[in-house]
Structures are given as structure tokens and as C-alpha cells.
Amino acid sequence: MAKESMKAREVKRAKMVAKYAEKRAKYIAEGNYEALQTIPKNASYVRLHNRCKLTGRPKGYMRQFGISRIQFREMASQGLIPGVKKASW
Predict the structure, then answer these.
(1) What is the rounded CA–CA span in Å between residue 88 and residue 33?
(2) pLDDT tens-digit profile of 29-81?
(3) Which end of the chain is more exposed for a tag (fewer CB within 10 A), N or C?
(4) How far is 70 from 45, CA to CA, in rounded Å?
(5) What are phi and psi of 61, to 5 degrees?
(6) CA-to-CA distance for 29 and 25, rounded, in angstroms?
(7) Which residues contact 19 (CB under 8 A, 6 or more apart)?
(8) Could you tell me which residues are beta bridge partners of residue 67?
(9) Whole-number Å distance between alpha carbons of 29 and 68
(10) Are 17 and 41 in contact (CB under 8 A)?
């Protein structure tokens, strides 16, 4: 499990990215890089990091499901993810 502070930090960054997205795009289109420097660094979308919705794990994230590989495997084994079953041959 990730620390709650790390999860909260990612949520805060996501809100900040959404808040400044329009202003940031405007400055970039104008080529006004001095004004772009006034926007907080955490407002940049590159600083966002995908995390598991259940555990907050930053590595092994599966975009299609929004969870980590470990949670995916457990949930698939229990039959909690529709359309997914264990391959066997």
C-alpha cells in the first residue's frame, strides 16, 4: 500500500493540471514563455504519474483497467473482472 500522502499528492497535482491547462495552452500557443514560468511546476501534465486506484502502487500499472498488475491478477483469479479469464493450454 502506498502512503496516503503520496495518493493525496497525485490527486492534488491532477486538480492543478486541470486548473491551469487552458492558461498553459494559451501561453504556449502565443510563445509567451516568460508568462509560462509564472505557472506552478506541478501544473505540468508530465508530472502526473499513474497509480493503482485500489492500492496506490506506482509501478506495474495497467492503463486499460486502472489498477496494478498484482491487483489485476488477484481480481481476475476471483472472477471480479468481466471478460477476463486465466489462459490455460
Answers:
(1) 55
(2) 999 999 999 999 999 999 999 999 999 999 999 999 999 999 999 999 999 99
(3) C
(4) 26
(5) -80, 135
(6) 6
(7) 43
(8) 62
(9) 36
(10) no
